[in-house]
Specification:
Blueprint lengths: L7 H31 L8 H20 L11 H25 L11 H29 L5 E6 L3 H9 L6 E7 L7 E2 L2 E4 L2 H6 L7 E4 L6 H13 L3 E4 L12 E5 L2 E6 L7 H20 L1 H14 L6 E7 L5 E7 L17 H7 L6 H7 L10 H8 L7 H7 L3 E3 L6 H4 L6 H5 L4 E3 L12 H13 L3 H17 L5
Parallel strand pairs: 1-2, 1-5, 2-4, 5-6, 11-12
Antiparallel strand pairs: 3-4, 6-8, 7-8, 9-10
Helix pairs in contact: 1-2, 1-4, 2-3, 3-4, 8-13
């Protein structure tokens, strides 16, 4: 309905990078093992040594990542890459030496020369594995597989220069070009269309990227093209001009020496996405285990207080990319007036009218909430005030529907309130908590909620998530802004 906001080009880059990480780690472990064997030592030493080496290995990947060896948007020269690999491998082996020194009960290197041998073998193995990856990718590209399919906008000198670089041997296939003046002709081996819509709809291939090279386009048209690409989950890059239409987290790169901006709806991508997911899974599991007695208590109270209805209530909300998800909550409303597709009252407005509170319809339409909602039971009011009704959302986080921290889960109707920022909002998973919740929750007007959600999406950082989690505890304990 709303399209994917995870560009296919980014997905391909992620899987290539993940394969590289696995091979790098395998080469490092093999280097240590072969160094041990070459010096007539037991493979990886005794079992405690193997455990220490395995536990240290994730730190090696962090070293490689901070050395820029896993940046898909950064193209390194061969010598520069080898030099970075040598430094990263040396630092990785140095970490083992430090552990070996600090852990007197576990001997990792019985021979002083073992780390040097491991460094040499590690560098050779990693350089070789990366050459093999490139060779395999090249063969796939030359056979027309695993290519990044690009639509170029413009046929001017800049487009001609870029087209010389965008060829299958580089993993890129220009499938179409857009230029109203040259429609119906051929440019760089691809057909020319008058509009981007025609170009996208005329190909069965999945388009991965739109590259805008026409500096004569105005701000409005550039923004429209960017929005169209985002709706279809297509990466959007452009040669910057005086207009500078780009998102807060856009990144600069070069193609054939030409500066190119890539529009990113959020700074959360690549390894940050994986790290955030790990935190979500671990945090959800810990929360479900630690809070299980509280879960049982609240579930019992809900059932005793209003036996007619279920304990959990499943709300339909928009997830990442506009997909519909079911968000769980402890039921806080009287079952008689709970709304839903299978309930007597389909909407909140219908329930208010049935209760003789039609005066609340306008307030709900504006804020999607009302003060002292008459549908909420006394127990439900307490659950909402303490946010205990949202505990089941830890299940959503574990299942991958929600994140611990993110924008608010909203309905499709509410999405219209986000205007031109809809794609930024949909670029992330909704969260159990977020900037809105720690900024006053229901005390904050709807327009301000939208600004907080968009700010979070466009300015995400791990530090911001930690800050929100810490502030959530204070907000929940104080019960501020909850009703």
């Amino acid at each position: 309905m709303f399209g994917s906001v995870a560009p296919r080009r980014a997905q391909k880059a992620f899987w290539i990078t993940l394969s590289t990480v696995v091979l790098d780690l395998a080469c490092l472990l093999a280097a240590v093992a072969v160094a041990d064997l070459a010096l007539h030592q037991p493979l990886f030493g005794p079992p405690p040594a193997l455990a220490v080496i395995t536990a240290t290995s994730p730190f090696w990947i962090l070293i490689f990542a901070t050395s820029g060896l896993y940046s898909p948007n950064r193209r390194l020269g061969r010598l520069s890459e080898v030099a970075r690999i040598a430094v990263a491998v040396t630092m990785s082996m140095t970490s083992l030496i430090v552990v070996d020194y600090l852990r007197g009960d576990v001997v990792l290197f019985a021979d002083r020369s073992a780390p040097l041998v491991a460094v040499g073998l590690g560098v050779a193995g990693i350089v070789t594995s990366r050459l093999l990856i490139r060779r395999v990718l090249l063969q796939l590209h030359l056979r027309g597989r695993a290519l990044t399919n690009v639509v170029v906008i413009g046929t001017g000198p800049v487009a001609e220069r870029l087209a010389m670089e965008l060829r299958p041997s580089q993993g890129v296939h220009v499938v179409a070009t857009v230029s109203p003046a040259d429609a119906g002709t051929i440019f760089a081996g691809s057909p020319v269309y008058s509009t981007l819509d025609q170009a996208l709809n005329s190909h069965r291939l999945d388009i991965d990227e739109v590259l805008q090279t026409d500096a004569t386009l105005g701000r409005v048209e550039s923004a429209r093209l960017m929005s169209l690409a985002n709706e279809r989950g297509i990466s959007y890059r452009f040669v910057p001009d005086l207009y500078g239409v780009f998102a807060a987290s856009s990144t600069m790169g070069t193609v054939a020496g030409v500066p190119v901006m890539e529009v990113r709806l959020t700074s959360l991508d690549g390894w940050a996405t994986l790290g955030k997911r790990i935190v979500d899974v671990v945090g959800s599991i810990v929360g479900l285990i630690v809070l299980s007695p509280l879960f049982l208590l609240v579930a019992t109270l809900v059932k005793v207080h209003d036996p007619a209805g279920p304990v959990l209530y499943r709300q339909q909300r928009l997830g990442k990319g506009g997909r519909m998800i079911g968000v769980y909550k402890f039921r806080s409303m009287l079952w008689e007036f709970s709304t839903g597709a299978d309930r007597p009252y389909k909407t909140a407005e219908e329930a208010f009218v049935a209760m003789g509170r039609g005066d609340l319809v306008e307030e709900f339409a504006i804020n999607q909430k009302v003060d002292d909602d008459p549908r909420v039971s006394p127990l439900g009011a307490m659950l909402r005030r303490t946010s205990l009704d949202e505990l089941p959302q830890l299940l959503n986080s574990l299942l991958g529907h929600l994140s611990l921290v993110g924008p608010r889960p909203i309905t499709p109707v509410e999405l219209e309130r986000y205007g031109n920022h809809q794609h930024s909002f949909l670029a992330l998973k909704p969260g159990i908590t977020g900037l809105w919740q720690v900024s006053g929750r229901s005390d904050v007007g709807y327009d301000q909620r939208v600004k907080l959600d968009v700010y979070y999406a466009e300015n995400w950082s791990a530090g911001l998530d930690l800050s929100i989690l810490a502030r959530t505890v204070k907000t929940v304990v104080g019960g501020r802004g909850a009703y």
